[in-house]
């Protein structure tokens, strides 16, 4: 039985680690994580990948939350009879929906980072939103936020320094919450087992 995982590129490293820890043999196909800035592109890209990998693999699963597709990704998954990760966004995938609800209730104005976003913030956010060229737009984008919450999967001194730099760039106080990737692992393994 061959397994393919169609995944958000932001989860790729974690999925590789999970596959290695659990001796999973899989083909990982990633979708450009910058599509989060244009979420209308996610469902069509997943649809195309599902169509292609269904021809060559016995099983295919989708390692994505809804990610701003407002149900479009669910419709694609349903049309291919495959499952995806639970949650509205990758924050739910790492921290659980209940934990994220509690964090947003604690402070509605919370801007959230994962390890991936910490590593790629300048490209994923600053460049994509034009803040590298127009820093005066900072207040337009971030005026309603009150804190920066980093959901760490694998904290390191380098990532901590990068998170502090993000905090300075967008002028928000940094809070750190270690969540690991256990919840992602549990969900991914459940998806794989359901398809066996």
What is the topological layout?
Blueprint: E1 3-8, H1 12-21, E2 27-31, H2 42-54, E3 59-63, H3 72-80, H4 90-95, H5 97-106, E4 110-113, H6 115-127, H7 138-142, E5 147-152, H8 157-170, E6 174-178, H9 182-194
Parallel strand pairs: 1-2, 1-3, 4-5, 5-6
Helix pairs in contact: 2-3, 6-8
Q: Can you describe this structure in just a few lines?
A:
With 196 residues, this protein is of the alpha/beta class. Helices cover 47% and strands 16% of the residues.
Unreliable stretches (pLDDT < 50, length at least 5) are none
**Helix-strand category:** alpha/beta
Look at the structure and give the mean pLDDT: 95
Element order: H for helix, E for strand: EHEHEHHHEHHEHEH
Helical content (DSSP H or I, runs of 4+):
40-55%
Q: Can you tell me about this structure?
A:
The protein is an alpha/beta fold and 196 residues long. It folds into two domains: 3-89 and 181-194, Rossmann fold (3-Layer(aba) Sandwich); 92-178, no CATH class. Helices cover 47% and strands 16% of the residues. It has helices at 12-21, 42-54, 72-80, 90-95, 97-106, 115-127, 138-142, 157-170, 182-194; strands at residues 3-8, 27-31, 59-63, 110-113, 147-152, 174-178. The strands form two sheets. Strands 2-1-3 form a three-stranded parallel β-sheet, sandwiched between helices. Strands 4-5-6 form a three-stranded parallel β-sheet. α2 (42-54) packs parallel to α3 (72-80) and α6 (115-127) packs parallel to α8 (157-170).
């Amino acid at each position: 039985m061959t397994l393919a995982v169609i995944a958000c590129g932001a989860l790729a490293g974690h999925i590789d680690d999970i596959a290695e820890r659990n001796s999973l043999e899989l083909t990982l196909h990633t979708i450009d994580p910058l599509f989060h800035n244009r979420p209308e592109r996610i469902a069509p890209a997943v649809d195309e990948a599902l169509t292609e990998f269904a021809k060559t693999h016995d099983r295919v699963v989708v390692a994505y939350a809804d990610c701003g597709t407002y149900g479009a990704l669910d419709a694609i998954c349903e049309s291919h009879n495959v499952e995806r990760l639970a949650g509205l966004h990758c924050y739910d995938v790492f921290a659980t929906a209940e934990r994220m609800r509690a964090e947003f209730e604690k402070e509605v104005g919370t801007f959230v980072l994962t390890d991936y976003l910490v590593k790629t913030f300048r490209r994923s956010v600053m460049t994509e939103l034009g803040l590298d060229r127009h820093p005066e737009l900072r207040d337009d984008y971030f005026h309603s936020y009150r804190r920066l919450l980093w959901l760490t999967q694998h904290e390191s001194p380098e990532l901590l320094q990068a998170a502090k730099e993000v905090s300075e760039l967008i002028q928000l106080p940094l809070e750190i919450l270690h969540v690991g990737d256990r919840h992602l692992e549990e969900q991914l393994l459940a998806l794989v087992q359901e398809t066996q």
